[in-house]
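The authors assume throughout that readers already know how a fold can be written as discrete tokens. In essence, backbone conformation is discretised, so a fold becomes a row of integers matching the chain in length. A single example would do more here than another paragraph of explanation. For illustration, here is how one protein appears when written out as sequence plus structure tokens:

…
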Amino acid sequence: MINSLKLKKWAAILVTSALAISLSACGGTQTASQPTAANESGNKAEAKSDYPQKPIVITAPSGAGGGLDTTARALTKVLGETNLVTKTLTVENKPGGGQAVGLADFVNKDSKDPYRLYLPSAPLIINNLKKEGNSPYSYRDLTPLAQLTKDYGAIVVKADSKYQDLNALFEDMKANPTSVTLAGGSAPGSQDHLVAMLPAVKAGIDPKKIKFVSYDGGGEAMTALLGGNADAIATDISGTGEFLKAGKVRVLGISSPERLAGEFKDIPTYKEQNIDAEFTIWRGLFGPKDMPVDVVKFWEDTLQTMSETEEWKKALEANGWENGFKSGDEFKKFLEDQEALIQEILVSLDMAK
């Protein structure tokens, strides 16, 4: 009896020891159902990013004081004030070639560097599509992060001009194209030119016959208009505010899909005048082409949050910008659509590649 009890006791000890050894061995191997501490959701892609860890540089492909420079500096100021980005943000100006110089410099640097950002506008698309284009690169060589602002084109005449609406202007241009001088602050095939040519084409005018004079910037074009050297100019609506308030100009039409508010509320759109055309002048933020996925997500989320802050809304109002925020697939789709529109206008001008 005693021997039997001893045998059972030793058997129990042996089983317990074997089980302990087995568990110890299993503890050295992690099963698929046991996520790591950095992967508690079981998906490494969802682990929290530690970006950013050092200063960030935003390239504005314009000179200091230009629209892109102003936008980039407003962006860095608001991101800092709201503590959405705690690392230093600086703006680097790379003017030249209607944004082409800055783009080439940006694209040809490290395509994976997440601490470089680029802030262009519509010429990013235009320069790549023109026959005499000055850029082999497009938005496809970058990572679109967000559209930040939107503005619209406008056809403007002097306050004492005989033209009261777009149709009256276009009737004269149809009858005798060279009798009307149309001007803009950019070269033929560039933004101001397209702002004018788009409604003209839709109104049935041969754009190649239009007398278009280009000036070095919207300020010079406005001076030409007020000085009597142009009958009308194509420009951005935000740049007309002070002249409109002073009673110096009349805006015949805006390229927006619907009427704007505030000081521009009485100005009809192209569409209201039976001209089926609209054009958005945008500014947006991009990263290098091979930007890491977690960094793209960081910027999309951060910029979305920033776009809803009071600080950003005040910056928009102070500069006469519209909040045109778009990110992700929505922004990419917008770029594709505008590329198709610009291609159509350039073909009508015989200026497409």
User: Anything to note?
Assistant: Residues 1-46 have pLDDT under 50 and may be disordered. The two ends are 103 Å apart (CA to CA). Residues 2-26 form the longest helix (25 residues). The CA atoms of residues 207 and 300 lie 39 Å apart.
